[in-house]
């Protein structure tokens, strides 16, 4: 599996223990199999030239959990975002990225305004991009850094990103009204 990670520096030796424990799939090293999506993360780097690292992951003999956008995915993300102990012992987790609506949704959920079903409905809005998270030393041992290259986004990429964001916000507004 070829994977990509965007950042401000090259990361040849990723640390699975660095980063937030309350991210979508808990603490780990996050990547995507979608090169175009990895490039999108560089759009916010106006004053620097970000890099895209390329990795190869051999999943043989690893415990891999795959999620789709469903109630199991929502429950796992919800628990991680709430800071609960990780409920899985997987080496690698593959699944949809929860768009930033989850922050707002969780705030609304904790206030009791939305049910879990309503919150999940909101998280289904927008495109479904995939993330791959290396969670264990065993998984990390099977991740090989291939190369790193600088990437400077162009005007067309920035415009496409803005158009997708605007469409997402429009669709999200419609979902809130429904």
What percent of residues are in strands?
Answer: 15-25%
Beta-strand segment tally:
7
Low-confidence region ranges: none
Q: Number of folding domains? A: 1
Question: Rg to the nearest angstrom?
Answer: 17 Å
**Share of helical residues:** 25-40%
Strand order of the largest sheet: 2-6-5-4
Overall mean pLDDT stands at 84
SSE order: EEHEEHEHHEHEH
Q: Number of DSSP helices?
A: 6
Instruction: Give a short account of the largest sheet.
Output: 4 strands, mixed
Which descriptor suits the 3D outline? Answer: globular
Distance between the termini: 39 Å
Describe this structure in words.
The protein has 6 helices and 7 strands. The protein has one domain. The N and C termini lie far apart (39 Å). The longest helix is centred in the last third of the chain and has 23 residues. It has a 4-stranded mixed β-sheet with strand order 2-6-5-4. Helix 2 links the parallel strand 4 and strand 5. The chain is globular and about 45 Å long. By secondary structure, it is an alpha+beta fold. The relative contact order is 0.22.
């Amino acid at each position: 599996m070829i994977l990509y990670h965007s950042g401000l520096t090259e990361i040849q030796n990723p640390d699975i223990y660095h980063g937030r424990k309350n991210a979508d799939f808990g603490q780990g090293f996050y990547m995507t199999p979608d090169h175009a999506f990895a490039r999108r993360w560089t759009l916010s780097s106006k004053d620097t030239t970000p890099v895209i690292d390329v990795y190869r992951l051999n999943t043989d003999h690893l415990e891999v959990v795959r999620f789709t956008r469903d109630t199991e995915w929502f429950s796992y993300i919800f628990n991680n975002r709430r800071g609960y102990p990780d409920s899985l012992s997987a080496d690698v987790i593959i699944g949809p990225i929860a768009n930033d609506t989850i922050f707002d949704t969780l705030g609304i959920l904790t206030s009791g305004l939305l049910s879990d079903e309503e919150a999940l409905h909101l998280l289904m809005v927008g495109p479904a991009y995939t993330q791959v998270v290396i969670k264990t030393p065993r998984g990390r041992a099977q991740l090989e850094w291939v190369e790193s290259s600088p990437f400077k986004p162009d005007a067309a990429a920035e415009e496409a990103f803005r158009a997708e964001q605007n469409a997402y916000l429009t669709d999200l507004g419609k979902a809130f009204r429904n």
